[in-house]
């Protein structure tokens, strides 16, 4: 069993020169505890490590000093560990360069800070009302039209067309306007049919410009506001939807309705805007003849 040696048995421990600092063995690791059982390099002036670590009076202090040198001051510890004057010169140059760069950067940043002073002012304004964002409601498919009037116009201008040709021509006119979701129907057309559809469309216009023709198709025969909205509420108060929404057109969607400039004047639930919409028809695109969903676009006003 190993114990503390008596005074007659005290011997200097062998120093492991592979490490910079000697390994100590302590009976009690406290700053004011019992002295170590083996002598340190600080008590042995002839040791080559005597100059690398100053004598410190307690175990914790020595450990903190060693940790500080090895992990915080890398350049300084390397300078201390240098064995030759040339190594010391290199590390001295590196530390001096880093110090000069740090001083220069501090000067530049301080000078820039004091020359370009910025004052930030935050002002909180309380408003009694807040504008609603732009709310635009659209059917997913563009074919929510009054086709009875459109078909009657086609029968009048081109009486020789049958019902299948009329449906193809109406689809060709809507798809030619650049709207989405016609792929399912267009995949059954042949390439040689497209020139014929183009000639029929020219005859159907009958002297009307393209803008006048699409105004007749989507504006005069498009769905109405009363058909789109079922009910609207401001808080718990029912309001007339069409007094607050106006028709507009959205790319790839066609005819839609957008909220006019409207303000919320009550807080929380009292100023909430609730919209209930109907399911519109979609006879040319949807398989079941009704719109699969409604699209809502919200754009905040800054």
Characterise this structure:
The longest helix is centred in the first third of the chain and has 31 residues, at 85-115. A hairpin with a 2-residue loop joins strand 3 (229-234) and strand 4 (237-239). It is built from nine helices and nine strands. It folds into two domains: 7-72, no CATH class; 132-299, no CATH class. Helix 2 (74-81) packs antiparallel against helix 3 and helix 5 (163-176) packs across helix 7. The two termini are 83 Å apart. Mean pLDDT is 78; it is low at 1-56. With 302 residues, it is an alpha+beta fold.
Oligomer status: single chain
Give the helices and strands as they follow along the chain. HHHEEHHHHHHEEEEEEE
Using the alpha-carbon principal axes, give the shape: elongated
Total domain units: 2
**First and last CA, distance:** 83 Å
């Amino acid at each position: 069993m190993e114990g503390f040696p008596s005074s007659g048995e005290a011997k200097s421990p062998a120093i492991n020169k592979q490490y910079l600092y000697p390994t100590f063995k302590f009976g009690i690791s406290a700053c004011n505890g019992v002295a170590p059982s083996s002598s340190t390099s600080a008590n042995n002036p002839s040791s080559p490590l005597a100059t690398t670590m100053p004598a410190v009076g307690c175990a914790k202090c020595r450990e903190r000093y060693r940790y500080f040198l090895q992990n915080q001051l890398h350049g300084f510890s390397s300078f201390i560990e240098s064995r030759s004057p040339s190594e010391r010169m290199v590390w001295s140059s590196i530390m001096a360069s880093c110090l000069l760069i740090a001083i220069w950067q501090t000067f530049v940043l301080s000078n820039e800070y004091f020359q370009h002073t910025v004052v930030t002012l935050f002002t909180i304004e309380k408003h009694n009302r807040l504008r609603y964002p732009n709310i635009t409601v659209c059917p997913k498919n563009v074919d929510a039209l009054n086709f009875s009037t459109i078909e009657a116009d086609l029968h009048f201008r081109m009486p020789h067309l049958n019902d299948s040709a009329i449906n193809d021509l109406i689809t060709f006119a809507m798809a030619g306007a650049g709207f989405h979701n016609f792929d399912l129907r267009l995949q059954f057309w042949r390439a040689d049919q497209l020139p014929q559809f183009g000639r029929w469309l020219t005859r159907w216009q009958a002297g009307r410009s393209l803008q006048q023709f699409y105004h007749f198709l989507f504006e005069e025969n498009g769905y109405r506001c009363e058909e789109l909205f079922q009910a609207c509420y401001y808080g718990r108060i029912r309001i007339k939807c069409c007094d607050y929404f106006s028709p507009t057109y959205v790319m790839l969607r066609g005819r839609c309705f957008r909220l006019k400039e409207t303000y919320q004047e009550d807080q929380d639930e009292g100023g909430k805007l609730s919209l209930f919409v109907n399911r519109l028809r979609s006879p040319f695109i949807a398989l079941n003849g009704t719109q699969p969903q409604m699209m809502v676009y919200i754009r905040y006003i800054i």
